[in-house]
Amino acid sequence: MSRPMKLSPSQIEQFRRRGYVAVPGFFNATETAALQADLARLQRNGFLRNVATDGDGRTHSSTRQNLQLCPANFYSTLIRALPFAPQVIEAVTRLIGPEITLHLDQIFLKPGRTGVGTAWHQDNAYFKIPKPLRGTAMWIAIHDATAANGTLRVIPDAWETALPHARDGNSDHHVRCHPDEAKAETVELAAGGVIFFCYGTPHATGDNQTDAERAGLAYHFLCEDQTDEAFYAAGRIGNPRPRLTGPRATGGREEYGNVIAGTWEAEVARAAPPAKR
Ligand SMILES: O=C(O)CCC(=O)C(=O)O
């Protein structure tokens, strides 16, 4: 089921030059159905939290929702297994390798009509790695992501310049910047497609103006050469940062106490609804 996903030389070249690349169909129909079913389970259990605020960065909104779960892998063995899937390791290694580490995972869900976007920002405003092209987000469209439901927008060719950021009053913890939106590209993706964008690329999502919910599952990866002991030590508090490749990688055993590598296919088979198996 899990086939190696080879990014083409021109896709890799686009990522390195423009700071992002969209890859439609990265996950197949069964994998996508498994992710959708597991997200529905997380929602049923009330694990996602509304981070939208009413302009002051503190008062949670009762009318607008930006639902987030970060990190999500403690609540989902499927989400924990995904970064160890062969096609993910292959693609991320080609973009930012040679050795890669998982930095973070999180879900952003925008309910129909009331769902609001995440404001413009560069991930490196949070992460502050020395070379922003050597860290990448992998944003997975869990549902079809369209302009109408607030899919991801990016500013191409902008990753080299660090923009000033300040707290976003419409979120209880996010920061935001103000890039030239005239240069923005709107990336529409069918469910199962992904967009890789480096830590320097300004990006945002929009409000969901449709009746159906839309979610993105975002992982962040970086090249081992952008890490140090302090980075791994910070991860020990609540968010382990598994080495995915390289001489110190253990398939997750060292960080999670259990070998996670090799479990993706079984996790998908377990989580996918019967019709998709
Ligand atoms: O999906 C969203 O609303 C925001 C995603 C994002 O900012 C990220 O993955 O870094």
Description:
- The protein has eight helices and twelve strands.
- It has 277 residues and is of the alpha+beta class.
- A hairpin with a 7-residue loop joins β7 and β8.
- The strands form three sheets. It has a seven-stranded antiparallel beta sheet with strand order 1-10-5-12-4-3-2. A three-stranded antiparallel beta sheet has the order 9-6-11, with no helix packed on it. Strands 7-8 form a two-stranded antiparallel sheet.
- The N and C termini lie close together (10 Å).
What's the layout of helices and strands?
Blueprint: H1 9-18, E1 20-23, H2 29-44, E2 49-50, E3 67-69, H3 77-81, H4 86-96, E4 100-110, H5 124-127, E5 135-141, E6 153-154, E7 166-167, E8 175-176, E9 185-186, E10 194-198, E11 203-204, E12 214-223, H6 229-235, H7 253-256, H8 264-271
Antiparallel strand pairs: 1-10, 2-3, 3-4, 4-12, 5-10, 5-12, 6-9, 6-11, 7-8
The structure holds 2-oxoglutaric acid.
2-oxoglutaric acid binds at residues 108, 118, 123, 137, 139, 203, 205, 216, 218.
Keywords, please?
277 residues; alpha+beta; Jelly Rolls; seven-stranded antiparallel beta sheet; three-stranded antiparallel beta sheet; 8 helices; binds 2-oxoglutaric acid
Short description:
With 277 residues, the chain is α+β, with helices and mostly antiparallel strands.
Strand count, sense and closure of the main sheet? 7 strands, antiparallel
Distance between the termini: 10 Å
CATH topology: Jelly Rolls
If helices are DSSP runs of H or I spanning 4 or more residues, what is the number of helices? 8
**How much β-strand is present in the residues?**
15-25%
Bound molecules: 2-oxoglutaric acid
Radius of gyration: 18 Å
Fraction of residues in helices? 10-25%
According to DSSP, the number of beta strands is: 12
> pLDDT below 50 for ≥5 consecutive residues: which ranges?
none
Which CATH top level class fits? Mainly Beta
